[in-house]
């Protein structure tokens, strides 16, 4: 967020419901039953997270963390995006330095090509988002000092 005001609780609840709805429900990556099986959260409870109106409930912090763990960093970033933040894995994925260098060089080449005219327009920025996220995800584990076992 650009200013120092806090997100309103209703807006936070809406953002969480919207994020859950992107990953779970009819026509989504996971059905309510799949998520229930994978998380141990009852189907009825999960359904309440994507319900509309008075029927909708917001997950408690413990349930939200379980959902973040189940859905992954893309989901966490959707939730945190409302406050200008994002999420990345903290476990080093690339054991070989060459894989890290290849990721960075490939991304650098794409960004250089996009910026050759000196401007990143709205279409290029949209294309840049997953590339930048991949670079951050590649480098972030080295800043966290946590490694895969």
Mean pLDDT: 86
- Give the DSSP E fraction (strand runs of 2 or more residues): under 5%
* Gyration radius over CA: 18 Å
Number of extended strands: 0
Give the SSE layout.
Layout: H1 9-23, H2 32-39, H3 43-50, H4 61-71, H5 73-80, H6 97-114, H7 122-144
Helix pairs in contact: 1-5, 4-5, 6-7
List keywords for this structure.
149 residues, 61% helix, 0% strand, globular
Concise structural overview:
The chain is mostly helical. It is built from 7 helices and no strands.
Structure description:
With 149 residues, this protein is an all-alpha fold. It folds into 2 domains: 9-83; 97-144, no CATH class. The chain is 61% helix and 0% strand. It is built from 7 helices and no strands. Helix 1 packs antiparallel against helix 5 (73-80), helix 4 (61-71) packs across helix 5 and helix 6 (97-114) runs antiparallel to helix 7 (122-144). The radius of gyration is 18 Å and the shape is globular. The two termini are 36 Å apart. The model has no long low-confidence stretch (mean pLDDT 86).
């Amino acid at each position: 967020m650009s200013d120092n005001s806090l997100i309103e609780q209703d807006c936070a609840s809406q953002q969480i419901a919207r994020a859950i709805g992107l990953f779970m429900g009819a026509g989504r990556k996971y059905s309510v039953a799949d998520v229930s099986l994978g998380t141990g959260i009852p189907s009825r409870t999960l359904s309440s997270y994507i319900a509309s109106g008075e029927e909708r409930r917001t997950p408690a912090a413990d349930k939200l963390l379980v959902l973040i763990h189940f859905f992954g960093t893309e989901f966490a970033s959707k939730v945190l995006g409302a406050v200008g933040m994002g999420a990345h894995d903290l476990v080093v994925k690339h054991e070989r330095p060459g894989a890290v260098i290849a990721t960075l060089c490939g991304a650098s080449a794409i960004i250089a090509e996009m910026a050759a005219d000196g401007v990143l327009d709205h279409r290029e920025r949209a294309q840049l988002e997953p590339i930048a996220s991949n670079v951050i995800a590649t480098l972030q584990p080295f800043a966290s000092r946590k490694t895969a076992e």
